[in-house]
Amino acid sequence: MSAQLDQVTASTATDPDSQETKEWLDALEAVLEQEGPERAHYLMERLVDLARRRGAQIPFSSNTAYVNTIPTHLETHCPGNLELEERLRSYMRWNAMAMVVKANRADGDLGGHLSSFASLANMLGIGFNHFWKAPSENHGGDLLYIQGHSSPGIYARAFLEGRLSEDQLINFRREVDGKGLSSYPHPKLMPSFWQFPTVSMGLGPLMAIYQARFLKYLHARSIADTENRKVWAFCGDGEMDEPESMGAIGMAARERLDNLVIVVNCNLQRLDGPVRGNGKIIQELEADFRGAGWNVVKVIWGPGWDELLAKDKEGILQRVMMETVDGEYQNYKAKDGAFVRKNFFGKHPKLLEMVANMTDDDIWRLTRGGHDPHKIYAAFKIAQEHKGQPTVLLVKTVKGFGMGKSGEARNTAHQTKKLDDEAIREMRDRFALPIPDDKLAEIPFFKPADDSPEMKYLHERRAALGGYLPQRRQQADETLVVPPLTAFQNVLDATPEGREISTTQSFVRIISTLLRDPSLGQRIVPILVDESRTFGMEGLFRQIGIFNQQGQLYEPVDKDQVMYYREDKAGQILQEGINEAGGMSSWIAAATSYSTNNRVMIPFYTFYSMFGMQRIGDLAWAAGDMRARGFLMAGTAGRTTLNGEGLQHEDGHSHIVAATIPNCVPYDPSFGHELAVIVQDGLRRMVTEQEDVFYYITIMNENYAHPGLKAGQEEGILKGLYLLQEGDKTSKQRVQLIGSGTILRESIFAAELLKNDWDIAADIWSAPSLTLVAREGQDAERWNLVNPGKEQRVPYATACLQGTEGPIIATTDYIRAFAEQIRAYVPKDRTYRVLGTDGFGRSDSRAKLREFFEVNRYYITVAALKSLAEEGKIAVSVVEQAIVKYGLDANKPNPVTQ
User: Fold this and answer.
1) 432 conformational bin, left if phi > 0, alpha if psi -120 to 50, beta if neither
2) How many whole angstroms separate alpha carbon 339 and alpha carbon 343?
3) For strand 760-766 and strand 722-725, is the pairing parallel, antiparallel, or unpaired?
């Protein structure tokens, strides 16, 4: 204690010229009173500038004192009936607790969280009662990213509103039978309730930033009136350690997203312990956000501290507040008033004098700002009205507020989900719940009568704000006309003799056609991440412009060129720079616009394949949860098609990642006609049918001739497998060669080698989606399992291949697991051999890479011959001859190990 006193005493040493200090402060006070804060700020900036120019070393700090940003005299008091609001919050706290505790008494493994909502309850109550508007005729509705672990409190509120039943609350985290509630916000599982998933942590603030920017985009392009709508994102202070949480705050400030509010619930704790035990997370976050250009509002202290701070003429209390670290603050709220008196106010004799007339209970009732409705309302109002900047509210709370000894401010608070009878009794008493002693053991849910003042108030407040939240629109009201397949005739036709193009070029033709379409053209959202020139899409810059709220304040260096870089206030392209997570977040905002804005938008996010699905896998999973609709176009795809780039650039596994997302529809087309069929049908499913799926399509930059669409191929393309080319029917031996992407061409070349060198015919099967073929097979297999007495279904792959002859060789530019997906559905009496690109990528030419990974025409030929030899149809010596003929190195190391 003496060391602490010495430290504080030293920091409050006598001013060497207190009179001069007073004169300066008085002058500043006069400016503030007579000319306002803007003038005071200007003068202070000039003084600092002068000092620095004269050589004074004045370090920059974006931190303010450890007190509330809004001075007491500028606070706007909450206009609501705070007595009724407090009762409603108490009921919600109780019901949230009962929901989790009941679930874990019935089944101790279900889990759940109490402490996050306990600390957030006041903030959520103020927002729901006074700020957040539901969609209506006059307002598109505010968008809420709710802190994921607070879901029990949101359910508790919806229960009082009559939107959820007691049976649903009883079945919290019991969803399989169809009447439960999801653990966290999951639109996939509760499609009319949750707007956004916010777990995994960090994705909420990131997606909220790009959602706010997308609202600006829609408004600038006159697609929807979003001017008065707000995006509110709630997250925990521990969550801010996620790189995604902070990664886009610079963009939000640069884009002046004054329709965005991020509320950081600073309860100082994460799952295992303090967020910054030796530091101050609020100060750290303030520096980060203010330095990035945000409007920062701190809500640290409740009203009981106002009088003490007013008495603090020497600034001793403020200094102690600043010097006290978060680990200490956590400890204070886990103990009692006597502990706080001794260990906090006891840091300086004058502070002890300041609270001498206060009892220990009085000291204990000194609340944190996040638990005072007036402080919260004042901060929310500033956030609601602030212009020109995004706002972050740093609100200090107590984790597990109201949970008492069972978890309040303790390291175990996050994991607390089981309360004993005594803890339940304490909670009832603390929040004055009208539940008799003989009912406590049942932990009953509590809901007042419909005609009670509390319930009338609850419904009146939401009626004034347009309806209930959260709520989610499942279908857009508007109908857009999708062009017929013939609209893409320039891609469906075979390439002219001597002309070669890539599937990427085919895609550019398709999107150019869509941009000209009278129904869909304005709803196409091209999203790019600084690879437009790689994909040959730079022509779109001049054609439709790049969205920028400021327009173009400079003359581009390439203005004299046809494809110059053009930014525009109503630009259609979203150019995200070197930023895959940002690109995906913009895509999600557009892909869910049918729900959030009642406007169908069709995003095409085109990215470097290797830096796509593997890098934004968590966001892709969240997109599935959000029932996103749109196209993810993975350019320069495949492990051997991107020659010269190397290990970190060559994608051989993204289709495996895509296959894990149930409502992701993945394709690896080889030709432009396949791509056109896939995109047109995707538009039909997502726009016309409003089906909750999204597409992952790999496209390549390798040029070759395209055969064009033949009548009747459409169904097989969409199912994922079709016969592209039949082999010579006169040959005695036959094999089936399956391929996708550019490697299908190696299978075509292998068929020629088999025919010309070994008199073996090969049927060529194009497999635009082995994943869809596998899913259909799994569906048929499951149906057969549970319907043993009915006629058994034949999987599509089996039906395609069972009438053919010879071994089946599948080769792709992806790891073997990709083609292995369909092994179970290949006819049982047939050899099935898979070639793939397992291992790390490396730099070289396409030909050398395909040789290295053993997926070129020669390895396919040898694989076919070896399979025939194993079936006894040719001699093993023929395989040996082929290995010599094609120069294959039998001693070459396995590429997987290299």
Assistant:
1) left
2) 6
3) antiparallel
Distance from C-alpha of 800 to C-alpha of 532, rounded to nearest angstrom: 39
For residue 403, report the phi and psi dihedrals to the nearest 5 degrees: -90, -5
User: What does the alpha-carbon distance between residue 175 and residue 180 come to, in Å, rounded to a whole number?
Assistant: 4
3-class state of residue 558 by DSSP: coil
Report CA torsion sign: 363, 366, 367, 369.
negative
Q: State the Cα torsion 326-328-330-334 to the nearest 10°.
A: 180
Kindly state the tokens that stand for 14. Answer: 């006598």
Instruction: Give exposure, 262-300, as e/b (b: 16+ Cβ within 10 Å).
Output: bbbbbbbbbeeebbbbeebbbbbbbbbbbbbbbbbbbbb
Residues 537 and 606 sit within 8 Å (Cβ to Cβ): yes
DSSP-derived 3-state class of residue 383: helix
User: 202 burial class (0-12, 13-18, 19+ CB within 10 angstroms)?
Assistant: buried
Cα distance between residue 494 and residue 774, in whole Å: 29
What are the two backbone dihedrals, phi and then psi, of residue 17, each rounded to the nearest 5 degrees? -145, 75
* Angstrom distances, CA of residue 701 to CA of 361, 613, 846: 72, 18, 11
Tokens of 709: 């669409």
If 0-12 CB within 10 Å is exposed, 13-18 middle and 19+ buried, where does residue 679 land? buried
Pairwise CA distance, residues 370 & 644, whole Å: 56
State the number of CA atoms in the 13 A half-sphere of 411 facing the CB. Answer: 9
Return the SS3 of 892.
coil
What is d(CA 703, CA 706) in angstroms, rounded to the nearest whole number? Answer: 9
Measuring CA to CA, which residue among 171, 195, 194, 191 is closest to residue 181?
171
pTM value is: 0.95
Whole-angstrom distance, CA of residue 840 vs CA of residue 868? 30
Q: Report the sign of the C-alpha dihedral through residues 214, 216, 217, 223, in that order.
A: positive
Closest of 231, 16, 20, 275 to residue 143, by C-alpha = 231
DSSP 138: S
CA nearest neighbour of 189 among 201, 198, 178: 178
Rounded to 5 degrees, what are φ and ψ at 850? -70, -30
DSSP H helices, 668-810, are 672-683, 714-719, 743-758, 770-786, 796-801
**At a CB cut-off of 8 Å and minimum separation 6, what does 454 contact?**
84, 87, 88, 91, 448
Q: What is the pLDDT of residue 417?
A: 62
**Termini Cα distance of the chain:** 62
d(CA 176, CA 167): 14
The answer to whether 363 touches 332, Cβ cutoff 8 Å, is: no
Predicted local distance difference test score (pLDDT) of residue 108: 67
d(CA 41, CA 705): 67
Residue 837 and residue 819: Cα distance in Å, rounded?
11
Between CA 71 and CA 182 the distance in angstroms is 41
C-beta of residue 98 within 8 angstroms of C-beta of residue 444: yes
Supply angle C-alpha 706, 708, 713, rounded to 5.
125
Tokens describing residue 430? 């603390």
Cα distance between residue 475 and residue 582, in whole Å: 26
**Six token digits for residue 881:** 């001859």
**What does the H/E/C string look like for 829-872?**
CCCEEEECCCCCCCCCCHHHHHHHHCCCHHHHHHHHHHHHHHCC
Q: What is the DSSP letter of 395?
A: E
H helix or E strand, kind and range, residue 525: strand 524-528
As a whole number of angstroms, the distance between CA 186 and CA 180 comes to 12
Burial 714-736 (b: 16+ CB within 10 A, else e): bebbbbbbbebeebeeebebbbb
How far apart (Å, rounded) are the C-alpha atoms in residues 319 and 13?
12
Identify any residues that bridge with 696 across adjacent strands, giving them in sequence order. 632, 666
Residue ranges in the chain modelled with pLDDT below 50: 1-13
